[in-house]
Fold this protein.
Amino acid sequence: MTIPFNSLPSYSDLFLKYIENYQSLSKYFEFNYTSDSEFLKCTELKKESYAREGNFSRNDISGILKEQNEIFGSGEKTFTNIGLLNDENTFAVVTGQQLGFLSGPFYTVLKAINTIQLSDKLSGKFPEYKFVPVFWLEADDHDFSEINNINIISKENELKNLKYFEKGQEQEKYLKPTGSIILDEHIDQFINELESSYNKTDFTESLFGIIRDNYKKGNDLKTAFAGFLNSVLKNKGLIFIDPSDKRIKEYLKPVFEKELNTFPQVCEKVINTSVELEENYNVQVKPKPINLFYIHDGNRYLLEPRENVIFALKHSRQKFSGEELSGHLESNPERFSWNVVTRPVCQDFILPTVAYIGGPSEISYFAQFREVYKFFDLGMPVIYPRTSVTVMESRVKSFLEKYNVRFNELFYEKDLSKKLLKDSAVVSADEIFSEMKEELTGIFYTYEKELGRIDAIQTESFTKRNRQFLESLDIAKDKFSASQSKKNEVLSNQFQKVLLFVYPDNTLQERVLNITYFLNKYGFDFIDNLIQEINIDEFSHQLVEASAVRNQ
């Protein structure tokens, strides 16, 4: 079952337009992701242009990838794919992500799966070429507070956030590239807390064995991340690239040099495109005068220009002359790092990229970058929307069926809550008893008048019993109302539990929950069956029943 993106909350207008009518945005992109001929055109152009003016060869890149993936514990199919990259007819389908703990939100796994799926699809459609999946490890990113935590649903059916801190203490500011962070003994506490938060299942022991093999004291975060994803995906052929490698940075010197020597031209190009886009859409990225970082004393700082060809590191006192910075680039290119604007350029300078699998936010900011690609004499790849998925567990499906609720209604909590409570109350106890009391009061009054003519003393006794009866109706009404409230409370609790699984923290499931929640409950076959259920050519939100990914 699929749900149109425009019936769900929190998608940007630009992304919705990209899905609904690519042609209306075609001037901001280079290739139509829905067209086979556009994929073929992109591939042929990449064959002509890749590494044409680079200071490296395909063999150089594949050699580095082989060494890196040996460290990451990649499977045999990955090394076969790395070998294919030596051939000029092999191209990359790429995705990338920050080094989230245990892969971070569920969508990270979806991106990796889509990259594998699209590579297979293109290899089948264009047999004269080969396509291999590549995952760009964003190891230089320094926003540790974004990636050091995961969200799960605990055995108490509560949304729980678990965090890891070096030395067990949160720092005021994080500037160190996350890929270089070495896990210490506090990782054991994090894992133990995670394990105790789940119910023990047939899959718990193997899952936490894999977790402890990768997230252990002495491992750096990029190795832990890649090793864990390799274990989850089980030899699907995904190639990991660690671009923080000094050898990769050496090959990227032409990109860094051009940005340093021509600033703020890239910034101006992004601004010009953004101004145009902002007539109809909100833009994602605010470019910097220099779209590069510099790693100094192990910390990553934004490079900022000053007067008289002086360059400063933001939030530090460190400054360089233009000549000094050029010297550092020549001798120590590993100190330089991209930002959100220059990362796609670096990625597609190093790799023979034909397609990039991107989420809604990424698609929105790629719309700002076409002129940047042109400036660096690179072709923009096909920007392919990643699959969006909600895993429907049995309790969710049962709730929807029982109360005749459509999936997209779940995202409008107040409206649905009112509807559910209204539908559950066939009649109102207040209304029934109020009407009854009103009718009886009228009847009693009439008979009291008639009986008063016969015997006033007996009528007083009759009136007293009437008042007692009416008071007993109030007691009965309160009991019926309490019973109805209890039923409403049960219904409300059921509704809240459904929201917890489908829309935790008022956010789509894929953006919140960690993959370990599903793996602990359904086992590692969950991934293989999920791959079978996902339709990479369906550009709507896909609902996948947990029973389907569990029982195949």
